[in-house]
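Box 3.1. Reading complex inputs
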Amino acid sequence: MSAGTPVVVIGGGATGLSTAWWLRREGVPVTVIEKGIVGWEASGRNGGGATHPSSPLFREEQRLWPMMDELLGYPTEHQPKRIRIAVTPVQLVHAEHTAELAERQGFPVERLDPKALHELVPWVGDDVAGGLLLHYGGHANPQRTAQAYAWAIQDLGGTILQHTTVTGIRVQAGRAVAVETDQGTIGCDAVVVAAGPHTARIAAMMGIEVPVAPARAEILVTEPVPLIRHGGADGNGLYGRQTLRGNLAYGGGPHEWIELADARTPRPVNSPVVRSLARRLTEMFPRLGHVRVIRSWAGVIENTPDGRPILDRLEDPSNVVIATMSSVGFGLSPASGHALAQLVTRGRCDFADLTWLRLGRFRGLAADWREQAGWVPWSAADNVTMVSTG
Amino acid sequence: MPYPIDPTSLAGKEFPVTEHVPLLVLGGGPAGLAAAIEAARCGLRVVLVDEHPVASALIGLDVPFMFGERLDPAVQNKARMTERVVAARPELEEAFEAGVDVRLGVYAWGGFVTGATSRTLPHPLLGLADEERSWLVSFDRLIVAAGARDLALAFPGWDRPGVMGARGADAAIRLYQAFAGRRLVVLGAGTLGRNVALAAQAAGLEIAGIVDVATLPLPLREGAGGRGPRDIPLYLGHAVRTTLGAMDLEGVRIAPLADLDAAFDIACDTVVCAVDLVPNVEIFDLLGCAIIWRAQQGGFVPSIDADGRTLVPGIYAAGDCTGVTDAAIADPGLAAAAGRRVARAAARDAGIKAEALPPAPPIPDRASDRDAIRRQWLASHVDATRADLMICRCEEVGVRDLLGVRPPRYLPYNGEKFAARDLRTLAADGPVNQDQVKRLTRAGMGACQGRRCREQVQLLLAMQGNQTTGSISLPSYRAPLRPLPLNVLSAHDETKQMRDNWVVWFGIPGQWLPQWEPLPDDADMVYESRVLRDFET
């Protein structure tokens, strides 16, 4: 075990675990506090994508993923490259727009005509508009990766406290000095709040306002089919991938804004949206109509008002770092953890420009920002009442 | 000024509902049929759905029972199978006469109710499907009579064709009259095993023996009395060492537990695993009904009151899915009585005058016996197996993989790192969770979604950690509860509103524009033109 007062990371999701792992790699004593099981919420329920050209962490994301299995010592199932499928000409235009951003940063994109696309993804229909082969990006298994982070932290002597709920944070003279939990109080040298949708509640314990709105989103998975060369093939309004086992895991479509009543995350249920996911998958892969869907699931993610992460070392308390990835956290986690560890140890990130990801950009945000955006729970019953009472 | 709604969210969106049903009954076994008939006689409009006859493709996947590939090709003819199901269940005729709208060959794959993360749903929905398409129905009340399924317990060779479950055998012999075997060995000398043996004999099949690891006296096996039904050889205190036959199953090799080397062979073409049954609670889990562990009732069961009301208003439970006891296995009349009682309660809740029926007789508490028998079966066969014993057939996870928390075989196995990781180290980090073990080993992650392994995995995790079986919490169930082809599950009837506003992820412009720059003033327009509206209608 490492000696000294630890940096306490609140939240055992991909972002928090990666941060703790990077800190441990630098020899910093670290304790991760997780209310349940590591990677249990959104970090273990997402599509596994690792292709985020709009992020300042993109280049680091691309640099790190091919090394992660070796660095962590456990398999993440990372696979390089992505294929964007355009079923219609409109979708091809949209795919081009999103690829442009990576091309501008020097990452090559290969245009695929229907024939070339069909060779790489034999499941597409004859009338497919075309596609792109991205010579960057990739995908990994979120559940295996979250556990790999956790085990790697332990292998390096870090501590992970599962089934431990944070109840308070003690601040003295402008510094967080201890984290109180239902299992006891832990003295801390610094605190990283990476609690996903619970980040706002945890930060509020220090009087800090972090604007995030939680929502539920869903995804489905089929039985395995024979492996294609690049499993990270998606489009037609879906994100997703063929897993190394051969299953097709695809999500997308409408989310549902929710409210968190307390420290627990309510069980995210599925809705009949799963039928619409199946429809889009059938449209994209008409040759796979017979393949069976075996399961679906849902997860809870949070978004900031502009949809961008908050990665910020605060001025007061000066040893607190706030981290939310605004619903796009898993794929960027190798890089976000690296950046956050630097914010803890150096106060700044030396490989990415995080200027526009500071908490201060939300100063003066209207108290009803969620209502103004329509990012609040909506119920048919309430709506009917509103109409009937005029 | 009214606040807007987020057009890319579920707010204000509708799911197409094919029909609204005052009382939906799920399951056409004794409990479901009795409930439907009783409710119809009370004056309720009732629709009953039952999945039998199931598609032959599902039979091949051991859904919903362990069919062990022992059904003849007649099952491919759905019309013919429907006739046989109607013939095998005379109460169906009675249900037709009572005015029940009966839908056979219809799967219930999803259940959706309003809850903490599903407030937009205006009313409860059930997802149904046949072989061609899926659809949604709404209901005022739902009586779930989903029955019980086979408890799979591993032994060497249990994963080969010819090994089936008690419910699978019963369906093959009596419901579908399409059983392809001739000579059976039954595993399990309790009431269930006896019933299977008697039904098989009545159908003119030969029973080569009944085998059980337990020895008498067994509370659950009273009535076996040292001899099987009609002088069938009874092998108590024996375990299965292996199955025989290169291609087709030709027999089993069994041995006394006291001397595993004293093995001998019994010729047979079918092995029926009839040790125990498990209540079907999957739909209750989807519907958010509280589920509790009751070993004496066969496992996890919905929490219900004396009239079968679950904790979710409007959802009721009757029959084997509320707990399957020896008494209920021996006498289907108990399930039918429960169905009638629950139907009366549902009718009363609907405002119809209907007298309450007397409560069910109390269940003898034999929790430890029943759990002990299951443990003994599994432990005996793990011990009796020199090689690794397969537990999850879909994902090929053996006992050693499971207890070692090893990654699946398609991944490189780094012995050194992983050797230091197993179930014990996982348990040191917190209570063992079956879903977590599933994520790491894939046990239960296959096409059958754990139907053939979740109870075994639960038992093995509990036994390894010296925990009670019920302390391993229920691994989650998710839609679709039956493996449905993509083009069947597909929302062919999706609304224009859903299609027009579909986005891959939230639809927040700032997420997709360079985040190393401030958000441009025209972000919404840029986003609208470049990313949104993948679907033009």
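In summary: Residues 219-226 of chain B have pLDDT under 50 and may be disordered.
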